[in-house]
Amino acid sequence: MEAVRQGRSPRIWAIALALAMPLSGCQSKGGVSDVLDPAAVAAPAGQNVAAGTGPAQASQSLGTGSAKVTMLLPLSAPGTSGETGRKMLDGARLAMTDIGNGLLTLTIEDTKGDSTQAGKLAVQAITTGSKVVIGPTELPAAQHIATLSGSKRPPVLALADNFAGSAGVYAVRLSEADSAAAGAAGLAAKGRKKFVLLVAEGSNASAVEKRVANGLSIYGATLAVTLPYSAGDGGAKAVDQMGSLVDAPDAVIVASGDGSPAPVLAALKSKGIPGKTVSVVGTDRWLERPMDPLFEGAYIATLDPGETGPIADRFRTTYNYPADVNVAYAYDMVALTAGIASAVGPDGFSKQTLENPNGFRGSTGLFRFRADGSSQRSMPFYRIEKGALKLVAKSTSGF
Known about the structure:
Helices cover 35% and strands 19% of the residues. It is an alpha/beta fold.
């Protein structure tokens, strides 16, 4: 490996060969594949193109490799959706420059932010020879693809937020369920045994409950009760019910979904929670809002911003704006497909390869895909102190 790293083309080979090692029975860095390790990537020369300067072309192709990959992005969608799509496109471009240009032919299709259009483009990609589909970002489209049958369907690396995953349709993004489960596991690993889940009502509530319960069971801890709450009463009713249903819980998990956790936290504070014996666990969704004094003392598992560091400077130099998590997700998925194409060939995108239990390390940290399509991430564990995240543990769990 060192001889390869010191050669003329470290950007491709140091990353791609790292995947081949665990697949052939060897391991790297404790068994984790470094197929996506940004630290092994040399800085490329790039173009200065800013995001959001206008709708991208409906279809464009990058690279000349033999592995045909389709990426579905909402490039011309209005508002935040379109901005996200254009950022992901730039992340994909950087990954192609770093790793993929000679390994992949990456076709980017514009979904326009429309779920119906995204579904049609996905079916088109699946039935016209794509080895992998990256995207879509639209949740209904990802859910629709998950219902499609066919043993020859290529793997889909879905970029939709809060997508639970399905066999062969893998959930890429960190979901609130993942964050809640990892945060609860972080306390369970320290000996906490009895947990309560307060979760915003909605279609995602059952997924959060399932992931949290499964995560706690690994440590011999239990989810004593799950109490869905309505945004209408700010969770006050659920907090009152908790007091009559559970005696002396060790921790309360608050999964607030799209809403602010502040009303629920205020209701908990009126009951003396958090306190000396009861902790509060939040989720990454809290961090989408400004820090609130009510967040003080809560524990949260979320992505490590330091993992993005190796690509962040090069991205800013190349595209004149800072990389965010959307850039990182796109970069990682293109880098992953390129690494697999190099290590096992353009026809090597099997379940065995993608569900490698050793996992992959990318600019969003260490992750792996499971047989049910869900993803599992090893994340730092933080406590909110004086309005900032203070590191408690570098990782909530290993693989």
